Amino acid sequence: MTKTRASGRTVGGLRTLSLQAPAVTLLLLWMIIPLGMTIWFSFQYYNLLMPGMSGFAGVENYEYLLTDPALWKAMGNTLLLVGWVLAITVVGGTLLAVLFQQDFAGRGIARVLAISPFFVMPTVSALVWKNMMMHPSNGVLAWLANSLGLPAVDWFSALPLTSIVIIVAWQWLPFALLILLTAMQSLDEDQVEAARMDGAGPIAIFFFITLPHLKRAISVVIMIEMIFLLTIFAEIFVTTSGGPGLATTNLAYLIYMRALLDFDVGVASAGGVIAIILANIVAIFLVRMVAKNLED
Amino acid sequence: MSLLRSTTPAQNASGVGTARGSAGMKTLVITLVGWSVALVIFFPILWMILTGFKTESAAIADPSFIFTPTLESYEAVQARSGYARFALNSVAVAFGSTFLALLIAIPSAYAMAFLPTKRTKGTLLWMLSTKMLPPVGVLVPIYLIFRDVGLLDTRTGLIIIYTLMNLPIVVWMLYTFFKDMPKDILEAGRMDGASTLQEVFFLLLPLTLPGIASTGLLSVILSWNEAFWSLNLTSSKAAPLTAYIASFSSPEGLFWAKLSAASTMAIAPILILGWMTQKQMVRGLTFGAVK
Amino acid sequence: MATLQLNNITKHFGDTAVIKGIDLEVNDREFVVFVGPSGCGKSTLMRIIAGLESATDGDIVIDGQRMNDVGPADRGLAMVFQSYALYPHMTVEGNMGFSMRLAGVPKEERRAKVLETAKILQLEPLLDRKPKALSGGQRQRVAIGRAIVRNPSIFLFDEPLSNLDAALRVQMRIELARLHEKLNATMIYVTHDQIEAMTMADKIVVLHDGVVEQVGSPMALYHHPANRFVAGFIGSPKMNFFDVELISTSPEGVQVRLPGGGECTVPVNAQALENASSENTPIESQPALELGIRPEHLVLDEAGALSGQIEVLERLGGQTSLYVRMGDLLVTLMTDGDVAYRVHETIRFGFAPERAHLFAADGRALPSLAQHPLAGLTRHDNRTSGDAEALA
């Protein structure tokens, strides 16, 4: 008799509704009003610098945006950024999770140190990396390179996107580690011991027991990171401002530039719609995963 | 659970003398690797903390762990830029939005966990989906609305945004904590004559307090570190620490020691909160998919 | 002074009917046990009585008053949960006094009442402990104490012993029976364990798939199961069932052919059978009949009608269980502890016809011609006459 028990109160439906009303109403407003406005603006001529020009623009904003090489460059940058950071954090996170699952002296403290970057606000981590780590003459990396007799790298001029990838990956690697480490702790010890009795070595155990067990956690990590990484903003804002040229402009930054630097609301909104569509493609998969999880 | 656990029956059986030696070796290697990796990852934070205690000239000199610590940067940060004002904004915004979010979310999560209807699951997933809306997609309308109603560069404006931003996560997290509470206990309370309100105050809240606390902390952390809205919707009056730190990016001068001092102060409370709640946060961050 | 009537109770969860129309009468001071396999609806039925679940249809009447719209706390009931459901953040005293605290009873009065109850259950030394610091049996007693404090007209127990180990379960069973006598209260008890049902009940209600299969005293259910389900559920080890062929019917009973060719006349009323088949029906299409016989009623007998090869042999000391292969069937026999048989030996065995049960194709039992002398016995009747009179 462990079936889910429905409420014993006859007025349950009504109560549920009234208790949920505030949260649901607010989120509904939060979603529908700006979303509706974004879609509406995206079909309008609307530039804050040119108050005279207004009216229905049809698909002109989209046409303008889609024929703008900046959009494609920004899309490419977005995908590169997301792809690289995902690859680094998932692979690195899995390996680190395995490492920090081992028993060693001071493991607890080491774990805490390793997940710390996740709690650092993005503007701080970006500036610390930009100035103190990657600065071409006074940075720690430059000093390290010099000490080894190598030429110092001018990170943000020579490898702008790589630099951003490094900073963002440093922030999100701990996230992957944290989630995967937690997931790993729910692995049934008996299973590992059974595998060991069956003659599996550490590597076999990793591939045949640990990795399958982590499958779900890894996909959750991928999807949640994706949602955040698609709209990385602060790190670019404080380090490169999208440059040099468009080298580090991603979709979020491009929309920001169109909206709050060029004041072209129409085009920025069209960009917003594109960003929403991109995010939704990811979201569908994540929501499905979580929905499946709700069943059990 | 551990893949390479140092002493396993199988390994001990393989050879009495050598097994012990190689196991000890393995532990040593793992300890070394584990600590090196942890320190490398933590290094930028460590370096930032150290730099905050240097003079400006020492900060840009060749990297060194040996220096005379000074508090001059900390004093300068407060005296010259009014660090306290930004910190106060951060505190007000983070705690204000968390308080509001909890207030709105607790009844909702209670209803979903204890009075589920056919639509509950759908509602939960829909709430989750609002989190998928990229902020940049709605930046323009929010900016314009805020401009028109005078919420630009106000704490109230940021509190509203952060409350809404964190509401889905807060509802989800509370929902998973409430779900874990044995239903029998609430039913026993009902048999004992507790009204809904008494049920909530005498039983539910005391029993789920750790969960509610970690939910609140996650909300504080997320609001504290949020940088997209704070950079775009505030300029001076209501600017929180994220925006303040961003002002150091201007190329006019390299004030590394001051940047480090300000940053250290900005991240220290959150770092500590984060360390404290890391376990429970996993649940909230993954919408209960990983526990 | 507490009676309970259920009138045609039904319960649906969405499209699935969990309780399909249950009528039941519980008398004052009766110990009624709801028993059935998991998923039969017994817990749901109890929760409907408690008011934690609302019935889709039907009436719940307590002491002549319709209680459908009365909240759980106001029905005059107390419930002991399977998980005990103790409030983990309160002490034993806090747990037991919580209902009074909610009702606004002054502290002194609360304490007195809790102490009085604690004495009955020997909980006094534990009053300041939190549930975490108690053993399973102690938690169980606190849960019972919490119910007693409320002075309910009816106690509800939802599988209260299932979380205890076997030894403690026996002990608590005895303690509950004693408590029932001491408190003179009406008790309703849900369990899936037929031993608990047999040992504690005045009246057993066997539930299956949301309907009542049979209501009666433990001995009535054992000796006169109403159908094949009850026959199989009550009694341990399980009753053996054989497909048998109908030979003839007469006022003395029904003559059937057993597997292996033996014949036997079971003294049951054939009326039901005659209604189902007409006389002209050829023997091959006669309605299928099943004969049921309990393992303890099968006896080793060189001249017995049945035979088979021993497949497994379990010696319990006092008794020996034999699992005997008869074609597709594995028949269970309970015999004396000292039998000298070995596995793979072939044995012959039989039974007294009046011990056998016959079941029609629809599962209904053909009623016995003679009532078993103990079938009317309830737990009350086990007491000396003086006791029984005092209770009556």
UniProtKB/TrEMBL annotation, chain A:
Q: Which domain of life is it from?
A: Bacteria
Parts of the chain that traverse the membrane: 21-43, 79-100, 112-129, 158-182, 217-238, 267-287
UniProt domain ABC transmembrane type-1: residue ranges: 75-286
Quote the InterPro entries the UniProt record gives. MetI-like, MetI-like_sf
Subcellular location, record wording: Cell membrane
Q: Which residues form the signal peptide?
A: none
Give the PROSITE patterns listed for this entry. ABC_TM1
Assigned keywords, A-Z: Cell membrane, Membrane, Transmembrane, Transmembrane helix, Transport
Membrane topology recorded in Swiss-Prot or TrEMBL: Multi-pass membrane protein
Quote the Pfam families the UniProt record gives: BPD_transp_1
A single GO CC term, please? plasma membrane
- Which biological process annotations from GO are given for this protein? transmembrane transport
Q: What is its main location?
A: membrane
* Family statement drawn from the similarity comment of this UniProt entry: Belongs to the binding-protein-dependent transport system permease family.
User: What is the protein name for this chain?
Assistant: Sugar ABC transporter permease
From TrEMBL, chain B:
- Protein keywords: Cell membrane, Membrane, Transmembrane, Transmembrane helix, Transport
Per the record, a Pfam family?
A: BPD_transp_1
Q: Which InterPro entries match?
A: BP-dep_ABC_trans_perm, MetI-like, MetI-like_sf
Q: What is its main location?
A: membrane
Sequence ranges assigned to domain ABC transmembrane type-1 in this UniProt record = 87-277
Q: Where is the composition biased (Polar residues)?
A: 1-15
Does the keyword section mention Membrane?
yes
List where in the cell it is found. Cell membrane
Q: How does this protein lie in the membrane?
A: Multi-pass membrane protein
Kindly state one GO CC term assigned in the UniProt record.
plasma membrane
PROSITE patterns, sorted: ABC_TM1
Q: Which SUPFAM superfamilies match?
A: MetI-like (SSF161098)
Which Gene Ontology terms describe the biological processes this protein takes part in? transmembrane transport
Transmembrane spans: 28-50, 91-112, 124-146, 158-178, 199-224, 255-276
**Which family does this protein fall into?**
Belongs to the binding-protein-dependent transport system permease family. MalFG subfamily.
Q: Which PANTHER family match?
A: INNER MEMBRANE ABC TRANSPORTER PERMEASE PROTEIN YCJP (PTHR32243:SF18), MALTOSE TRANSPORT SYSTEM PERMEASE-RELATED (PTHR32243)
Full protein name = Various polyols ABC transporter, permease component 2
TrEMBL record, chain C:
CDD domains attached to this UniProt entry = ABC_MalK_N (cd03301)
* Pfam families referenced in this protein's UniProt entry, alphabetically: ABC_tran, TOBE_2
Task: Give the record's GO CC terms.
Answer: ATP-binding cassette (ABC) transporter complex, substrate-binding subunit-containing; maltose transport complex
Q: Name one GO molecular function term.
A: ATP binding
Q: Entry's InterPro entries? A: AAA+_ATPase (IPR003593), ABC_transporter-like_ATP-bd (IPR003439), ABC_transporter-like_CS (IPR017871), ABC_transpr_MalK-like (IPR015855), ABC_transpr_MalK/UgpC-like (IPR047641), Mo/tungstate-bd_C_term_dom (IPR008995), NA-bd_OB-fold (IPR012340), P-loop_NTPase (IPR027417)
List keywords of the entry alphabetically.
ATP-binding, Nucleotide-binding, Sugar transport, Transport
Known Gene3D superfamilies for this protein? 2.40.50.100, Nucleic acid-binding proteins, P-loop containing nucleotide triphosphate hydrolases
PANTHER family the record matches: MALTODEXTRIN IMPORT ATP-BINDING PROTEIN MSMX (PTHR43875), MALTOSE_MALTODEXTRIN IMPORT ATP-BINDING PROTEIN MALK (PTHR43875:SF3)
What is the protein's given name? Various polyols ABC transporter, ATP-binding component
Q: What is the organism of origin for this protein? A: Halomonas citrativorans
Upper lineage? Bacteria, Pseudomonadati, Pseudomonadota, Gammaproteobacteria, Oceanospirillales
